[in-house]
């Protein structure tokens, strides 16, 4: 399998040539947005409620994080901000609804990494991630927790890799979504560390974590908050985190990149806000400023509680962030060989 070099992960690269090639397209897209700004003056927006469609069910952690944020954004904009859950279809249902909506700023999407991985995972999608959506802002990012069963005789990532090398294919990892980050994380770890693991698929995270705690499987990649209740019992151990910096939720857990030989290993998840492509740039900027202003100390505390380190990016910075992450995760899927025939 051919692999390309990258500063975050050597197997997956956006080379300098590729970045230079992509830059005109990115600038052209922002210029097109600016040209459309006259279609709707920022002072006139919004004149009615704004819908934020989310692919996550009501009452879940993402939903619980968004609702107090939406209340603050509504106060700033002077119009209600309605959170509308549309779960299902590996986030495709919600994404498609927003991608096909009028580009007027009244229908927005909250999405995570799945938006980016789906673009390479599925052969056919009812939208084009790169051209049908435009980022408004990113609410936060953080790394994944690398967790092992408490029954496994290792205390850090170096020990896990050493054990895996002694028994190729003998250690297992659990995944809750084919092609999702719980799947791609271990695959990228295999490729960079030169180890062989065996995948065990689950239909949901709770069953996966229960089996991890019982020693049925050996390892998984996941968000810290989901496994936090198991940590005091000793049934699950977090041996590394994959972000570019230590998370406030896991200050004593070393980065995967602190492990010898894994210095370039860095994976992160994020929560982003998107609009249909063609939305006037003045509207994007007004929404961007409203969401950034709404992140007060209470919202920051909620972000950290959900393992999200707040970001404070402009519309232009968000566009660059989107292009970088889309390229990285799309390459990760393609080089992993994972695909879904749909």
Automatic annotation (TrEMBL):
Keywords attached to this Swiss-Prot or TrEMBL record, sorted alphabetically, are: Signal
Span of the signal peptide: 1-34
SUPFAM superfamilies noted in UniProt:
Periplasmic binding protein-like II
Q: Name one Pfam family in it.
A: TctC
Family membership: Belongs to the UPF0065 (bug) family.
State the name under which the record lists this protein.
Extra-cytoplasmic solute receptor
């Amino acid at each position: 399998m051919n692999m390309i070099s990258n500063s975050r992960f050597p197997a997956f690269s956006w080379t300098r040539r590729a970045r230079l090639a992509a830059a005109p397209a990115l600038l052209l897209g922002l210029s097109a947005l600016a040209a459309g700004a006259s279609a709707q003056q920022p002072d006139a927006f919004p004149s009615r409620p704004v819908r934020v469609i989310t692919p996550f069910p009501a009452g879940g952690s993402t939903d619980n994080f968004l609702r107090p944020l939406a209340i603050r954004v509504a106060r700033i904009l002077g119009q209600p901000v309605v959170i509308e859950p549309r779960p299902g279809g590996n986030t495709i249902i919600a994404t498609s609804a927003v991608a096909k909506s009028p580009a007027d700023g009244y229908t927005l999407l909250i999405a995570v990494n799945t938006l980016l991985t789906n673009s390479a995972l599925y052969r056919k999608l009812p939208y084009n991630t790169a051209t049908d959506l435009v980022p408004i802002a990113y609410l936060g990012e953080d790394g994944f927790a690398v967790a092992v069963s408490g029954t496994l005789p290792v205390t850090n990532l170096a020990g896990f890799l050493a054990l895996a090398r002694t028994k190729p294919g003998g250690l297992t990892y659990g995944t809750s979504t084919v092609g999702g980050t719980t799947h791609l994380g271990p695959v990228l770890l295999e490729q960079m560390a030169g180890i062989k693991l065996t995948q065990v698929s689950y239909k949901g995270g709770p069953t996966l974590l229960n089996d991890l705690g019982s020693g049925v499987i050996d390892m998984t990649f996941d968000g810290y908050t989901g496994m936090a209740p198991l940590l005091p019992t000793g049934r699950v151990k977090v041996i590394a985190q994959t972000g570019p910096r230590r998370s406030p939720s896991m200050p004593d857990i070393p980065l995967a990149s602190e492990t010898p030989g894994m210095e370039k290993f860095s994976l992160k998840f994020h929560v982003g806000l998107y609009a249909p492509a063609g939305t006037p740039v003045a509207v994007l900027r007004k929404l961007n400023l409203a969401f950034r202003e709404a992140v007060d100390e209470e919202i920051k505390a909620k972000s950290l509680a959900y393992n999200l380190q707040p970001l404070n990016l402009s519309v232009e910075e968000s566009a660059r962030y989107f292009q970088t992450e889309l390229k990285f995760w799309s390459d990760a899927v393609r080089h992993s060989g994972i695909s879904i025939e749909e």
